[in-house]
Amino acid sequence: MNKSNLxxxxxxxxxxxxxxxxxYRTSLGxxxxxxxxxxxxxxxxxxxxxxxxxxPTLMGIVADRKMEAQKVLSLCHGIAGxxxxxxxxxxxxxxxxxxxxxxxxxxxxxVAFFMPTIALVNSVSYNAMSxxxxxxxxxxxxxxxxxxxxxxxxxxxxxxxxxxGVAMQSSxxxxxxxxxxxxxxxxYALTMPSCPxxxxxxxxxxxxxxxxxxxxxxxxxxxxxxxIFSMLLGASLQITNGYANLFLxxxxxxxxxxxxxxADTFAVKNSNALIAISQASxxxxxxxxxxxxxxxxxxxxxxxxxxxxxxxFGFFGIGDPAMPGVLFFIFSCIVYGMAFDFFNISGSxxxxxxxxxxxxxxxxxxxxMMTNGFGATIGTLAAGAVVDACGVFDNPAAWPKAWYIFxxxxxxxxxxxxxxxxxxxxxxxx
Length: 430
Hints:
Layout lengths: L2 H20 L5 H7 L6 H25 L3 H26 L5 H32 L4 H25 L1 E2 L2 E2 L5 H17 L16 H4 L11 H14 L4 H12 L4 E2 L2 E2 L5 H4 L1 H26 L1 H21 L7 H29 L5 H31 L8 H22 L3 H6 L1
Antiparallel strand pairs: 1-2, 3-4
Helix pairs in contact: 1-5, 1-6, 1-7, 2-10, 3-4, 3-5, 3-15, 4-5, 4-7, 6-12, 9-15, 9-16, 12-13, 12-14, 13-14, 13-16, 14-15, 15-16
């Protein structure tokens, strides 16, 4: 197969994969708030973490032992797309009488089958590149960047496309849009090069497939600290995904002397576009990681990430949609790249360099499970409890209090990590 042609096909694959997610991930909270389900936001976003604990592994086992990976990818997107579109059409039909149970069930089915597709897209891409004589380590990152581009494009479409005069970021249309894109990818996945099933993997135990051997790393004190803090930091991941858009939208009703002073500001009317700066920053910060790793080392890069979360939340608490307050929102989006990328990538490198070779892949899976599974789930539910306790749905002026609590949490985590975790480079030199 022509390498240029394959590269283009993989770019489309990765673009569509993350466009499916970007259609609703940062804007769903605002829609739920608008239909009176603000107190349920935590459950919708926690579900992404819950299914991430086991569904990627289960679908990975199917792809390894039963069905070619590109077919599993197609199946997952087919189910996810139909369920998400079904959720959108249910909301369209229900109007102002949307009920939690049917919407949540359809949404949960969708994310349960979507979350495994992120790893499956990687598997399909790596397989195709290897068979074409390409180097995945060298050639895949420039292709993967188009996934983030797809996420941003989908966010901007959700922001600027209006259905019946209502912005998609405030409408059920974002769910329909995501579902349609997922069905398109369901069909497109079947055109990808075949991924042969490895029959030899059938002899492996289910415990090995789930990477349970990696839990032996908890016997190592520093690894135990690392994984515990991975979970604690993972608790920050979903907070702004779930609440930032709703928070920005809440300024539309703020009155000063009887005048809604923020209703027509860019940050309120185009909140999803503003938040898209976060994803752009994420893309750029990936390029800075080699320099920071060489200059500061793994521990300091991890600490930069942790204290970037303090700024991420703190700037939201300080800012407002008018000038100059909106600059704090922009700063919050800029530091997100460091907050998200620096720990995820440096943490992955720490595992790669310090875990035994025979459990290295399992250890990477455990790292992801602690951050995106347990951490994101616990953090989302805890954040929801904080938001509810602050009473932001009855009193939007209470939002800064919630953001400061999140910032204080991130600060405490950062300080404790700085004290308890030993720099592996200094440890090796000792």
